[in-house]
Structure formats: C-alpha cells, structure tokens
Amino acid sequence: MQREATAVWSGGLKSGNGTVTGASGAFNQLAYSYRTRFENERGTNPEELIAAAHAGCFSMALSAQLERNGFTPDEVRTSARVSLEQKDGGWAITRVELDLNARVPGISDDKFRELANAAKAGCPVSKVLNAEITLNARLNAQAA
User: Fold this and answer.
1) How remote is the C-alpha of 135 from its chain's centroid?
2) What does pTM read for this prediction?
3) Among 3.30.300.20, 1.10.246.10, 3.90.1560.10, 3.30.1300.10, what is the CATH number of 46-139?
C-alpha cells in the first residue's frame, strides 16, 4: 500500500508560498507559507499535517487494540501537538503530545491505559517519527 501527496513551492523561503495536494482528492492545493509555518498566520503547515496524521493514525490503532480485546469504543477523540524547535543548527520535530479522550463501555482504567500505550507504540505514524511521543489518556466515565 502506498499513499501520495504533492507539494509545490514558488519563490524564496520567506517571500514564497506553496500548496499541498493529496492524491486521494481529500485535500487539494492547501496553501502554506513561511508565515503559516513560523509566524502563526492562518493557513496550514507541514507540522499541522503531521499532527493530523498522527491523531488519526493513533485513534485507529487504539480502536483496533480495543476491538481485539473485546471492547467497542463509543468515541475516541485524539489531538496531537507537534513541537518544532531549533536543534543542532536546524529545525527538528522534537516532540508530539497526544491528548486522548475516549468513551469505552465496560473497560477498566488500567486496561484502557495498557491498550492506549500499545496503540501509541504500534501506530505507524508513531514509528516513523524521530521524536519524543507522550500520551495523556483520559477514559470518560460511563453511565450506569
């Protein structure tokens, strides 16, 4: 299985701009620039796209872990915060913080944390990132 996206950049680093397009058609010519990446101007950037990919991958990996263990989640909601820092004379993604909120009927907090940590380790996006990955997992209480 292969997935593909294309980036097109025009101009210099600070004065230029670019677009990213997914081959699937899910996103087409999303604009990005130095300003959207380093100055918090509205628009996307590579780190935001990595965060989205990591949150989505982890949520699916956790759902798979839960299902293999006899649990069906009502909801798995994950946000990912990617840290881009200057390191060794260049820029590096140094950390990803996964923040998980889930509703899973019938699971104990210990089992939930065990499976969440297994999903963090097994998620393909986690495996590709050369960064510290932390997980803050919260299991929402179920109605009796």
Assistant:
1) 12
2) 0.90
3) 3.30.300.20
